[in-house]
Design the sequence.
């Protein structure tokens, strides 16, 4: 008799974004004539760039001809894309990453969820808190986290690394030993950044304790401050302790195309085994490569025109972020992030918790954001606003928020 | 201190297709002027059809405009594709499958590898033998299979269901209790089929013992015999015991586009839990949906012209299969499959095992196939030839094989 993976039962019943969707839907059913302004989920709104679309058309045409048709892609990605990434994302910043250390995938969400498979079942997990839910949920399904306290909104077997305004959203090193550390900078959901010196401390800690850092750099393209690190490999010694995740989703509007990559340096050895080799084996056995046409589109992002267009889109979203932040400042609402990342992390108005803020903004201003508590215990007290909206939506939302405070 | 997932260590060092690639490369280095004829890996060789390419271009253009741009897809797939599949793949054959029971993915390989996550760690696994390696490798990585006997080429903790010419490649029901049963028809690697009555026996067995069947129907489009079942849901009671995997790869040449789907009926309940709900949760947490443009391309396959073009490609490959089979028959080599599937399962020449046959054909005829033993213990004694090649390659290969026997 077959049985289910009982670890799934440990997942909290309500998923953050489902609960938001449920409340918004209920509100809209009651108020069908009201326009709801969505600054919730972090999906892009600008269409694909001209360069990407042109390359997609070209690649599609190649697939129509027997001479240029491509079937199965290499499971680890095409060399043309890996080489361009090695040159443009790393070499240009003075970091040497070999193309073979870059594994292309269908996006950072899959990589962030699957990477835990390389580690032992008893690995102690630490996450920056608040946190992107995928790191946690994938470890719950794998059985590493079993004891959720619904009242506290905490996993007893997870090491939370609190991030809040008093540590400018860069956590202190953990007090007890941890094995696997998820860090994300520029941060989702807080929009915060980490300095090279701060990140170096984490690298030193990981090397000293033989922990592994999963560094999620999905929002790297949003960095404007030239002093900030774009890659964890800018830190000395990171190649022996860190895996880096990158995404084309927010960087180039690929949320609907699906492309990302994972860097595992050859020097990252655990129990005498190369994690790169393990990951290649994992991907080769369980995944069949990102589509050729989409890898071509990804490569086009790095062309001169592609980079210019990408930058324009990033700047547009960062302008949105500035508008939101300025709007909140004008009514004396404290807010963080938004300078080098697409998220504004607003402090809840006096006397409201995160879900109360959600309900208040939905009801009074018709603005949808994301309650900070949905991202973890340290998210309570905050509220996330996404800068990915269209300009008109952003302006209306700011206006509406101003009127209700 | 972090440790690796030690289950990876249990995987045999050499992956079948890597070993083949290694031997072919070594041969080519020694004989650079010889043309090697590849009938090994089952990748398609015909380009994408006109209808699919036209739809891809249209969908790409939609992604260029702000009004029609699509970002994140629903993790379970777009309704337009799910509805078409429900109508065309099931309703047309008298099977009622609701769109919500169809979960779109980036291909049957991912689904075949990931589906085991829904089941308990101690599930007893059974596979038709010979077998597509993904079913086994994914269970090894998950720790369900730990004891490999390299000398015998067998997993001690796996229940093999032997398939050979004496049972026309349809296995007998297992003697002892099993929990999860992987069956694939039309079969990879043998090219064999299963009758509805035979499949009904498996469904009855699974329902009686509360086992779950993972039915891999990736090659369903190759069925020519109108009496054969295309879906396991043509059998009575299958909705309470079976998951079905489908693929656009071989059916419509999507090996490089990546699209597939998984059917989990609402009625499939284990331990009081809907497996459909578990899978939706799994996909929602660890996957971000197949690209919009590729789901559009998949939908185009079902248009009238799309179906005609798909059928032409299938017929082309089946003609290849017939040419191979007739060629082998003319020199009195016994062979199976090829009538309702793209693979020919040749009996090794007298006195040769599968790898000896491989080396002999590579050396003498310059033909690359796949040693049957690579697919499992019951594969020994056989050799797989793929019908996916271009016509010229197939004809040359048959000629060459004829000359060396």
Sequence:
């Amino acid at each position: 008799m077959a049985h289910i993976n009982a670890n799934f039962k440990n997942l909290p019943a309500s998923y953050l974004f489902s609960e938001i969707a449920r409340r918004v839907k209920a509100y809209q059913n009651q108020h069908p004539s009201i326009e709801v302004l969505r600054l919730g989920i972090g999906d892009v709104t600008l269409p694909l760039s001209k360069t990407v679309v042109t390359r997609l058309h070209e690649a599609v045409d190649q697939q129509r001809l027997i001479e240029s048709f491509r079937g199965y892609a290499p499971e680890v990605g095409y060399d043309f894309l890996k080489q361009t990434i090695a040159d443009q994302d790393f070499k240009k910043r003075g970091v040497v990453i070999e193309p073979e250390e870059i594994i292309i995938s269908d996006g950072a969400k899959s990589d962030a969820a699957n990477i835990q498979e390389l580690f032992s079942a008893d690995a102690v997990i630490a996450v920056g808190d608040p946190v992107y839910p995928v790191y946690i949920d994938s470890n719950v399904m794998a059985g590493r986290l079993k004891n959720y306290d619904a009242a506290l909104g905490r996993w007893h077997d997870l090491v939370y690394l609190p991030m809040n305004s008093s540590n400018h959203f860069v956590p202190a090193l953990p007090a007890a030993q941890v094995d696997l550390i998820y860090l994300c900078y520029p941060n989702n959901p807080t929009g915060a950044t980490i300095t090279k010196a701060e990140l170096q401390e984490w690298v030193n800690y990981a090397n000293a304790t033989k922990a592994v850092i999963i560094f999620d750099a999905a929002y790297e393209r949003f960095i404007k401050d030239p002093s900030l690190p774009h890659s964890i490999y800018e830190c000395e010694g990171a190649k022996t302790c860190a895996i880096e995740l990158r995404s084309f989703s927010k960087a180039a509007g690929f949320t609907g195309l699906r492309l990302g990559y994972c860097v595992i340096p050859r020097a990252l050895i655990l129990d005498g085994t190369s994690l790169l080799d393990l990951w290649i084996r994992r991907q080769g056995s369980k995944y069949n490569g990102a589509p050729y046409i989409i890898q071509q589109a990804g490569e086009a992002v790095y062309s001169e025109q592609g980079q210019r267009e990408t930058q324009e889109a990033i700047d547009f979203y960062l302008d949105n972020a500035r508008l939101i932040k300025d709007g909140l400042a004008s009514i004396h609402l404290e807010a963080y992030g938004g300078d080098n990342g697409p998220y504004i992390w607003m402090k809840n108005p006096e006397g409201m918790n995160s879900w109360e803020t959600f309900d208040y903004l939905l009801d009074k201003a018709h603005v949808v954001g994301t309650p900070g508590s949905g991202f973890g215990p340290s998210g309570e007290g905050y509220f996330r606003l996404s800068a990915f909206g269209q300009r008109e939506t952003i302006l209306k939302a700011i206006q509406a928020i101003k009127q209700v405070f």
Q: What stands out?
A: The mean pLDDT of chain A is 96. Chain A touches chain B through 83 residues (CB under 8 Å).
